[in-house]
Design brief:
Layout: H1 3-9, H2 17-28, H3 36-49, E1 53-57, H4 63-71, E2 76-81, H5 84-96, E3 103-107, E4 123-128, H6 135-142, E5 146-154, H7 175-189, E6 194-199, E7 205-210
Parallel strand pairs: 1-2, 1-4, 2-3, 4-5
Antiparallel strand pairs: 5-7, 6-7
Helix pairs in contact: 3-4
InterPro entries: Cation-dep_OMT (IPR050362), SAM-dependent_MTases_sf (IPR029063), SAM_O-MeTrfase (IPR002935), TrmR_methyltr (IPR043675)
Keywords: Magnesium, Metal-binding, Methyltransferase, S-adenosyl-L-methionine, Transferase, tRNA processing
Pfam family, one: Methyltransf_3
Length: 212
């Protein structure tokens, strides 16, 4: 644990028991969820932006959706998850957290999902946290649903440090994914339609504000 992480933990608030259970569940079953420092930073960013409608690509077991909804009482979230087991767990946890009225969960592949089924035509924010090698495709599909001035957030931009490695140092099974993730990062950082920043918190969070 880094000095920063140790210091930050001194100020961390006690978590909801359901959230603690979800973190333990994710660790036990190797489900990728946002790192503590990443989700806390994300919650802080949303407290500044104050969105009322957020679209999430990649629900997993519902951890980030629940954390964001708990921290932002006016926020409504639509979230898409293709994995059947993870979707079922997300349904379970969202019900237990009494957030069914503010979190709409869809079981589908986000790349082929019919966006007309979403509860809103446009969103203040979009959070992409699904297959890392497909970030550009997710971004291009869902960016039109984000309002002008809205923000698209992407997690795992560092992919556990693999983006910092030379290609031959990356495990072969991950090379295409990392190549695609790097290409997406280069593309969005140079895209003048967005004001984009890359934050070195958690596993790397990208923030892209849609220009008018």
């Amino acid at each position: 644990m880094s000095n920063y992480e140790s210091y930050r933990l001194n100020f961390e608030k006690e978590l909801d028991p359901i959230v603690q259970e979800m973190e333990e569940d994710a660790q036990e079953h190797f489900v990728p969820i946002m790192e503590r420092s990443g989700i806390e930073t994300f919650i802080g960013l949303l407290s500044i932006q104050k969105p009322t409608a957020l679209l999430e690509i990649g629900s997993a077991i519902g951890y980030s959706a629940i954390r964001l909804a708990q921290a932002n009482p006016e926020l409504h979230i639509a979230t898409i998850e293709r994995d059947e087991e993870r979707h079922a767990k997300a349904v379970h946890y969202i019900q237990r957290a009494n957030l069914n009225d503010r979190i709409s969960l869809f079981k589908d592949d986000a790349l082929t999902f019919d966006t007309s089924a979403l509860p809103f035509d446009h969103f203040d924010a979009c959070f992409i946290d699904a297959a890392k090698g497909q970030y550009k495709r997710f971004f291009e599909k869902y960016e039109p649903l984000v309002k002008t001035g809205g923000i698209i957030y992407c997690d795992n931009m560092f992919m556990h440090g693999m983006v910092f490695l030379e290609e031959q140092e990356v495990p072969k099974r991950n090379r295409t994914m990392i190549r695609n993730l790097k290409a997406f990062t280069e593309w969005i950082m140079g895209n003048t339609a967005f004001e984009t920043s890359l934050l070195p918190v958690g596993d790397g969070i990208l923030i892209a504000r849609k220009n008018s």
